[in-house]
């Protein structure tokens, strides 16, 4: 991962290196402290410098946005379907049946294990968000903690939008509707969630694309990021996802919740460019549309 650099302007003349980094790269105090502990990770005109050093117009301030070392994640080589990759990020088309994070109680490989084997040097997998084990589709991974923090800012500022395709039970009365209902843990559970008045704010939009055989193909857009949000909201609306054993019923037609993250658009946190990506539905969902 290459150094990020900026040339000091007249307006910034006299500021400290720390203030230049905060303004230009949104570097936090905690990250500045880590940079100070890493020799050669902070440069002024190509030479090591203290964060308190005053800069002059025309100076070049550079820092290393990479992680200082490889994270202790066991590397396991597995095939990866990479939709997008650059020096800072990659986006996967996640398959069904694999978790994003390692399971503490199992040796079953996760995507983090596979990415640890795939990434070289001190690049590390930092999932920007997660998908349930049974959910397929687009999953964004930052290659360092710094890039991960920048991506979280992009999310909070509303410049990260993901839409899903799902197959749900029944036919909604409205072609498009919004579910604005808070979500929290169900009573007595540390895993199952439910709509409850004391829960965290959660908002989703549903658009019906097609109806068939008592089912509906819908496009779902979450505006918040609660655990199991789309699954909980569609069950609350009376149209649980087909195959969702936790919030609806098991199905002989699909052995997982029929949910796929199909479209993703975000502002790149380093380049500022708009990235738009698409992943087609997998066969276990498309086959339901033709049977």
What can you see in these coordinates?
34% of the residues are buried. The strands form three sheets. Strands 5, 6, 7, 8, 9, 10, 13, 14, 15 and 16 form a ten-stranded mixed sheet that branches. By secondary structure, this protein is of the alpha+beta class. It contains six helices and 16 strands. The chain has helices at residues 17-25, 29-36, 111-118, 145-156, 229-236, 283-290, and strands at 4-7, 42-44, 47-48, 60-63, 82-85, 89-94, 126-127, 136-142, 160-169, 176-180, 183-185, 193-195, 203-212, 215-222, 259-267, 274-278. The protein is 18% helix and 29% strand. The longest helix has 12 residues, at 145-156. It starts with a strand and ends with a helix. Among the domains are: 4-63, Structural Genomics Hypothetical 15.5 Kd Protein In mrcA-pckA Intergenic Region, Chain A (Roll), CATH 3.10.290.10; 163-260, Pseudouridine synthase (2-Layer Sandwich), CATH 3.30.2350.
């Amino acid at each position: 991962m290459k150094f990020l650099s900026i040339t000091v302007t007249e307006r910034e003349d006299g500021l400290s290196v720390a203030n230049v980094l905060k303004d230009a790269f949104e570097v936090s105090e905690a990250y500045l402290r880590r940079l100070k502990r890493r020799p050669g990770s902070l440069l002024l005109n190509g030479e090591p410098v203290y964060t308190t050093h005053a800069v002059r117009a025309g100076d070049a301030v550079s820092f290393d946005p990479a992680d200082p070392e490889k994270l202790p994640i066991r590397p396991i080589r597995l095939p990866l379907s990479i939709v997008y990759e650059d020096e800072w990020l990659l986006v996967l088309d996640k398959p069904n049946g694999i978790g994003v994070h390692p399971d503490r109680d199992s040796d079953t490989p996760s995507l983090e294990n596979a990415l640890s084997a795939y990434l070289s040097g001190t690049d590390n997998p930092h999932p920007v968000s997660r998908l349930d084990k049974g959910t397929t589709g687009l999953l964004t991974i930052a290659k360092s903690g710094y890039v991960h923090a920048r991506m979280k800012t992009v999310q909070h500022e509303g410049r990260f939008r993901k839409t899903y395709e799902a197959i749900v039970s029944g036919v909604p009365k409205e072609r498009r509707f919004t579910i604005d209902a808070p979500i929290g843990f169900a009573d007595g559970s540390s895993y199952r969630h439910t709509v409850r008045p004391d829960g965290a704010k959660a908002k989703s939009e549903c658009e019906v694309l097609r109806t068939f055989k008592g089912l509906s193909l819908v496009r779902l857009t979450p505006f918040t990021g609660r655990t199991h949000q789309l699954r909980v909201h569609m069950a609350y609306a009376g149209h649980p996802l087909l195959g969702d054993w936790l919030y609806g019923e098991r199905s002989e037609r699909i052995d997982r919740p029929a949910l796929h993250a199909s479209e993703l658009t975000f502002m790149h946190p380093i380049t500022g460019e708009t990235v738009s990506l698409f992943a087609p539905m997998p066969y276990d969902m498309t086959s339901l549309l033709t049977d």
